[in-house]
Specification:
By secondary structure, this protein is of the alpha/beta class. It starts with about 30 loop residues before the first helix and ends with a helix. The radius of gyration is 22 Å and the shape is globular. About 40% of the residues lie in helices and about 10% in strands. It has 16 helices and eight strands.
Length: about 500
């Protein structure tokens, strides 16, 4: 779902992340800013929207990106991206569909950065201290966006311009929530790959890693068998405490020396397959790390290339953690950090923010079990989450809070939301896969990975995503027209 972070040496690789959260920035910030399309600005934002005593009228600088290149001033719609767990530039440069749509519909485009991520740190270097981190909530982030949209509309003489929000992954969840909570401000939402059900504690805890496994099984059942076999060989070596062999076979910088180290190694390796399943795009990308085209297929080819399964596993891990080939070994604890999100939190400040959110409102209790998936049994229960979060952040999670705040699966009275999902994305079945009404529309992308539809047009795109983008464009144009009519009344 962030990442942007402390990249290890020159390896833009390093990403430990899964999802929702954690995007790894694959270029240094000044390189990312080379796109002249956007202007980077800062908005004076209220620190605490809901308690007038806690911070008085305190403010912080919230970053946003804006382009008026295609806007019909004062008339065209406003397309607002609800930034998620990472540097806002990374999302802006990997959401080309929004720009393409703005060109068609003469829209103003704004990408808002989420508080506590990127450069939008309310308390600077102290933002992740307790209790300052307590103002990192979904509700505060939504209020940020509502205030930003309202005030920027005033500043830009755009008060009658309909607003459509966009987001991918956790950002897609925020787009849904904006439409639910602020329908007076937001006329419609495109929520791409938004796991609003699983992150609210609804669904099967086995679903995520089962669906990661299915991506590899769909290439060849022998592929998932090889992954299972490699993890089994690793387990046997660990039980014999043959740590030096594990080190040499998997090119680790240091030999493991405990059950904890083996657990960490399993998490690091499981994360490799998670990331490739999420980013199984038909072309190479540098989003969340450098990835080849069709990485699941590349991984399966690597896993099946010979009988030495541990060597194959090592080289498969290198696709993610050593895409430049510059690493000489894998450091267990710097490449991957275990946290309250079993799919990975990433590294650096952004990982701290996501870990805190996974300890409070966002429920991510997913397990692997080696029965419904190809990974070692690694449970992450509500009890374990509670123990970890109490120790790490001094908080007790509130299971079910997102269901209360943002409706859970009881969405039938909402309107004007698109839920798009790709069938290759392990997050997809944690979201809405069937339309709930004529204006709560589920669009499923055959051959699509994590929010593929938000990415710009590419010649390698499957026909399915081209069709979905066309439908999205038509629906958004209708919503804009309806909102203009409402505003005239």
């Amino acid at each position: 779902m962030s990442r942007i972070l402390a990249l290890m040496s020159v390896t833009a690789v390093l990403l430990s992340a899964g999802t929702l959260h954690g995007y790894v920035q694959s270029r240094k910030h000044h390189d990312v800013k080379s796109d002249p399309q956007f202007t980077e600005k800062y908005f004076s934002q209220t620190v605490d929207h809901f308690n007038f005593n806690s911070m008085g009228n305190g403010t912080f600088n919230q970053r946003y990106l804006i382009t008026e290149k295609y806007w019909k001033k004062g008339y065209g719609p406003i397309f607002f991206y609800t930034g998620n767990e990472g540097d806002i530039w990374e999302f802006a440069l990997n959401s080309g569909f929004i720009i393409e749509l703005a060109a068609q519909q003469k829209a103003l485009v704004i990408f808002g950065e989420h508080r506590y991520y990127g450069r939008s740190l309310p308390f600077g270097k102290d933002s992740f201290n307790i209790p300052q981190v307590g103002l990192l909530t979904v509700e505060q982030a939504l209020a940020d966006y509502a205030v930003m949209i309202t005030e920027l509309k005033q500043q830009l003489a755009a008060t009658d311009c309909p607003v459509i929000v966009f987001g991918g992954s956790y950002g897609g969840m925020l787009s849904v929530y904006m439409r639910l909570k602020y329908p007076n401000i937001v006329a419609g939402a495109l929520a791409a790959s938004a796991p609003i059900l699983s992150t609210a504690g609804l669904g099967d805890t086995r679903q995520f890693f089962r669906d990661v496994t299915a991506d590899f099984e769909n290439i060849a059942t022998e592929c998932s068998d090889a992954v299972r076999g490699a993890f089994h060989e690793l387990k046997e070596l660990a039980e014999c405490q043959d740590y030096s062999r594990i080190q040499s076979e998997l090119a680790l910088c240091n030999p493991p020396s405990s059950i904890r180290d083996i657990h960490q190694l399993n998490g690091l390796l499981r994360n490799v397959f998670t990331l490739m399943a999420m980013l199984d795009y038909p072309y190479s990308t540098s989003f969340m790390g450098n990835m080849p085209a069709n990485p699941v297929k590349v991984a399966c080819k690597t896993m099946l290339r010979g009988s030495d399964l541990l060597a194959n596993l090592r080289d498969t891990a290198g696709i993610v953690y050593n895409s430049t080939g510059l690493l000489t070994c894998f450091d267990l604890y710097s490449l991957y950090v275990e946290c309250a999100d079993p799919t990975g939190c990433g590294l650096g400040f952004n990982s701290l923010a996501w870990d805190y959110q996974a300890c409070t409102e966002i429920e991510l209790c997913y397990e692997s079990n080696n029965l419904t998936d190809m990974f070692p049994p690694m449970a992450f229960t509500e009890k374990y989450r509670e123990i970890y979060c109490s120790k790490r952040w001094g908080v007790v999670p509130r299971p079910g809070w997102l269901q209360i705040q943002f409706w859970g699966d009881a969405l039938s009275t909402a309107s004007n939301i698109i839920f798009s999902n790709g069938d290759l994305d392990p997050w997809a079945n944690g979201g809405v896969r069937k339309s709930l009404s004529s204006s709560l529309i589920a669009l499923n992308i055959s051959g699509g990975a994590h929010h593929l539809d938000l990415r710009g047009h590419n010649e390698a795109d499957p026909p399915s995503v081209t069709g979905v983008r066309k439908t999205e464009s038509e629906l958004i144009a209708q919503w804009v027209k309806m909102e203009r009519m409402r505003l005239r009344e």
